[in-house]
Amino acid sequence: MKNITKEYANEDITVVWKPGICAHAAFCANQLGEVFDPNKRPWINVAGATTERIIEQVNKCPSGALSFYYNDEKKAGEQPTAAGTESVVEVSANGPLLVHGNIIVKNPDGGETKHNRITALCRCGASGNKPYCDGAHKKIDFKG
Asked: Rounded to two decimals, what is the model's pTM?
């Protein structure tokens, strides 16, 4: 899958979307449809809600496909990340493993990818973006 990154900015923050790692859980569209509407182009409208509400919703993204950064460099250090040193693994019904917290994924080529907040890992085996979930569990009707 292509390594595409798209950015949508208001005067406070820039929302970053990486479609290649999106698990299509639709938390964003279902919980803040005035900002995240997959039937519109562009599908992210950062003028649709307050900056605080957008940040709150982006932080709920289970795959990490949505993130944000502050446009003002002075606030960059304030971006929330997972607190503490513990991580929690949640098994989602018929879906991915959701890892809440800071983790490092070691790739077969020896490279490492750091993640914080929430990372969705494939549990069904059908993802085209392993080890990450890409929503394929829905297509194959995974139960587990």
From this structure: 0.63
Query: CA 130, CA 68: separation in Å to the nearest integer?
Result: 23
Strand partners, 88: 100
pLDDT in tens, 45-89: 999 999 999 999 998 887 778 988 999 865 554 444 444 568 889
Q: Which residue carries 């957008």 as its tokens? A: 54
For 30, the enclosing helix (H) or strand (E) is helix 27-31
**Residue 97 burial by CB count (10 A; 0-12/13-18/19+): exposed, middle or buried?**
middle
User: Scanning the structure block, which residue is given the tokens 């997959």?
Assistant: 38
Q: In this structure, which amino acid lies at residue 137?
A: H
Q: For residue 85, what are the contacts with CB-CB under 8 A and spacing of at least 6?
A: 101, 102
Whole-angstrom distance, CA of residue 78 vs CA of residue 47: 22
Buried b / exposed e along 28-63 (16+ C-beta atoms within 10 A): bbeebbebbbeeeeebbbbeebeeeebbebbbebbb
Check: CB of residue 42 under 8 Å from CB of residue 60: no
